[in-house]
Amino acid sequence: MQSSGRYEICSRNEKESLLDYLEEKFGIPREIFKDYTFLKKGKNVWIFSGDLEALSEVRRIEIIGIKALSPTKSGLKPTTTFVQIFGKFARKNVVELKDENELIEFASGGIVKRKFNAEPGYVIVKYGDDILGCGLYSHTGLISQIPRGRRVEEKWFKEQ
């Protein structure tokens, strides 16, 4: 790995493993990422589309690109931002919420308790044409992975 500040550029093998995961789990074609660089910072994977050579001139880098994936007990978890950008290319393990009640439950951080046509583990969640984010699907149901700061409150939808 080459160093770029506190970030490390993923090796060719690491990038191939990440592309394999995204293609096998979500059906996202690897060519979507041909103009992107995958980076590691700590245990997290970031994705960057800018000019890497220009980075060598920068003394201190706080953030490059977006955080894409984080390791968890359940496998690599795609971030909400990553899913909202690249989820439109997914062809597998995409689940669609059927109504506004499910939307509110999911967007407020809850569990949508029904069966979906998806493999257990992380899935991409959409409502209509909108990609909402990542969910964790299991026998319990679809557990929202929307970050606390982005969740909605159910009272916002109730008539006063």
3D structure, described in words:
The chain is an alpha+beta fold and about 160 residues long. The chain has helices at about 10-25, 50-55, 80-85, 100-105; strands spanning about 1-5, 5-10, 35-40, 45-50, 65-70, 75-80, 95, 110, 120-125, 130-140, 140-145.
Q: Spans of 5+ residues with little confidence (pLDDT < 50)?
A: 1-5
Residue share in helix: 10-25%
**SSE order in H/E notation?**
EEHEEHEEHEHEEEE
Structural class: alpha+beta
Q: Averaging pLDDT over every residue, what do you get? A: 88
Q: What is the CATH fold-level name of the largest domain? A: Nuclear Transport Factor 2, Chain: A
Distance between the termini: 56 Å
CATH architecture of the largest domain: Roll
- What is the total domain count? 2
Largest sheet: 6 strands, antiparallel
In percent terms, what proportion of residues is strand? 25-35%
Which features characterize this protein?
single chain; 160 residues; alpha+beta; Archaeosine Trna-guanine Transglycosylase, Chain: A, domain 4; 2 domains; six-stranded antiparallel sheet; 4 helices; 11 strands; 21% helix; globular; disordered N terminus
Compile the SSE list and pairings.
Blueprint: E1 2-4, E2 7-9, H1 12-26, E3 37-41, E4 44-48, H2 52-55, E5 66-72, E6 75-78, H3 80-86, E7 94-96, H4 100-107, E8 111-112, E9 121-127, E10 130-138, E11 141-144
Parallel strand pairs: 7-9
Antiparallel strand pairs: 1-2, 2-3, 3-4, 4-5, 5-6, 8-11, 9-10, 10-11
